[in-house]
């Protein structure tokens, strides 16, 4: 589990493989602090560390991405030098600064528009149609691993705003119209919608 609070920016240092992609990632995480088999959220997708090593600025580690994950997320777009939002798995007792996030991407959305409002940045996002019913005004959503509050919704889109710190500390500040983003809807909304399909189960 995660909270959608990005703790570091990583950068892709190497890409290999065909059906299964292997990515090596430079990060400020020290190798001694990472366990092989541990989970880290990458742009909202939970991946497992399979190898690690030191660098001058911290460390590097490798993850492997299945064809299914490549198909359902933006991870197949990564290339050497790509910046990636990182979050280590939540520990019991950690502060829950965002909302409960599973690291299982529900679908890929597209930035429809990006505009500045003073020092804030607003994004209008078009989600896959199947996700629309899970997105509510003042609810939570994860975009590329970042927990955000939904400010407005339409039948086909929703809007979020980010503060300057989020723009600078994550990849969201680089987004422009046309960019593809990983979306994970709020866990509670998903279960509430499921229960509403079978009201007798909640009686």
Word description of this protein:
- The protein has 203 residues and is mainly beta.
- It folds into two domains: 8-88, Elongation Factor Tu (Ef-tu), domain 3; 107-195, Elongation Factor Tu (Ef-tu), domain 3.
- The chain is built from three helices and twelve strands, in the order βββββαββββββαβα.
- It has helices at residues 67-72, 164-169, 187-197, and strands at residues 8-16, 21-27, 39-42, 45-55, 58-65, 83-88, 107-117, 120-126, 140-143, 146-153, 158-162, 180-185.
- The strands form two sheets. It has a six-stranded antiparallel beta barrel with strand order 1-2-5-4-3-6.
- It is globular, with a radius of gyration of 17 Å.
- The two termini are 29 Å apart.
- The model has no long low-confidence stretch (mean pLDDT 92).
What spatial order of strands do you see in the largest sheet? 1-2-5-4-3-6
- Compute the separation of the termini in Å: 29 Å
**Any idea what the radius of gyration is?**
17 Å
Proportion in β-strands:
35-45%
Stated plainly, the CATH topology of the largest domain is called Elongation Factor Tu (Ef-tu), domain 3
Helix content: 10-25%
- Low-pLDDT sequence parts: none
> Major sheet, described briefly?
6 strands, antiparallel, barrel
The best one-word shape is globular
CATH architecture of the largest domain: Beta Barrel
Total DSSP E strands: 12
Mean pLDDT: 92
SS-derived structural category: mainly beta
The helix-strand sequence is EEEEEHEEEEEEHEH
Number of contiguous helices: 3
Q: What is the CATH top level name of the largest domain?
A: Mainly Beta
């Amino acid at each position: 589990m995660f909270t959608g609070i990005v703790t570091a920016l990583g950068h892709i240092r190497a890409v290999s493989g065909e059906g299964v992609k292997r990515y090596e990632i430079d990060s400020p995480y020290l190798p001694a602090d990472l366990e092989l088999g541990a989970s880290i959220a990458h742009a909202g997708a939970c991946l497992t560390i399979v190898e690690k090593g030191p660098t001058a600025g911290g460390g590097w580690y490798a993850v492997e991405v299945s064809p299914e994950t490549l198909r359902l997320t933006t991870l197949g777009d990564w290339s050497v030098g790509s910046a990636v939002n990182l979050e280590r798995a939540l520990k019991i007792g950690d502060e829950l600064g965002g909302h409960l996030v599973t690291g299982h991407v529900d679908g890929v959305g597209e930035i429809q528009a990006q505009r500045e409002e003073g020092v804030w940045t607003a994004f209008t996002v078009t989600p896959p149609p199947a996700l629309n019913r899970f997105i509510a005004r003042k609810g939570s959503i994860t975009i590329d691993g970042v927990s955000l509050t939904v400010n407005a919704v339409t039948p086909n889109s929703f809007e979020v705003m980010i503060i300057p710190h989020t723009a600078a500390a994550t990849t969201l500040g680089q987004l422009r119209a046309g960019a593809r983003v990983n979306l994970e809807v709020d866990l509670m909304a998903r279960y509430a919608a499921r229960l509403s399909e079978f009201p007798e189960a909640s009686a």
